[in-house]
Amino acid sequence: MKSSPVKNISCLVDTDIAIDFLRRRDYAHKLLEDWSEKGLLAISTLTHLEIYQGMKAGEERPTSSFLDGFVSLAVDIPIARRAGTMQGELRSKGMTIGIADAIIAATALQFGTPLLTNNIKHYPFPDLKIIRGFS
């Protein structure tokens, strides 16, 4: 029996790290290389949206090839509900975060995988394991 690729995920890569890789930042290349040795790399389908909205003319082919190398985790009902609940809890404390960040955080929590990001302040969730991209 074949195991599900979801069980072999080493981390969920946040949009900022993916963008830095596409911008040829050395640290991002090394970081993704190191984490890929530990298992599969995943991204949220929201990361596709965030990257495509900032893509310039002529970048579609390399961007698509890069994103296709990840396991893409779709936003489903449990993730959407979890993200909404998480945003509601923050709002009750007078804090707000963007919907995309809430969904990405909920995705990492739903799959029990750490989030690889430089945007630590975007993710004020105590149960979320965050790995800082810059060390």
What report would you give on this structure?
The protein is α/β, with parallel strands linked by helices. The chain has one domain (5-132): Rossmann fold, CATH 3.40.50.1010. 49% of the residues lie in helices and 14% in strands. The chain has helices spanning 15-22, 26-36, 45-53, 60-68, 77-92, 99-111; strands at 9-13, 40-44, 71-73, 115-117, 130-132. The protein has a 5-stranded parallel β-sheet with strand order 3-2-1-4-5. Helix 1 (15-22) packs across helix 2 (26-36). The longest helix is centred in the middle third of the chain and has 16 residues, at 77-92. The protein is globular, with a radius of gyration of 15 Å.
Keywords, please?
135 residues, alpha/beta, Rossmann fold, 5-stranded parallel sheet
> What is the assembly state of the chains in this entry?
single chain
Cα radius of gyration in angstroms: 15 Å
What low-confidence regions span 5 or more consecutive residues with pLDDT below 50? Answer: none
N-to-C order of helices and strands: EHHEHHEHHEE
Average per-residue pLDDT, rounded, comes to 92
Biggest sheet strand line-up: 3-2-1-4-5
* SS summary, helix count: 6
CATH architecture: 3-Layer(aba) Sandwich
Kindly give the count of domains: 1
**Number of beta-strand segments:** 5
Q: Give the fraction of residues assigned to helices.
A: 40-55%
Strand content: 5-15%
Q: Give the distance, in angstroms, between the N- and C-terminal Cα atoms.
A: 39 Å
The CATH homologous superfamily corresponds to 5'-nuclease
Q: State the major sheet.
A: 5 strands, parallel
Q: At the third CATH level, what is the topology name?
A: Rossmann fold
Which structural class best describes the helix and strand composition?
alpha/beta
Shape: globular
The first-level CATH class is given as Alpha Beta
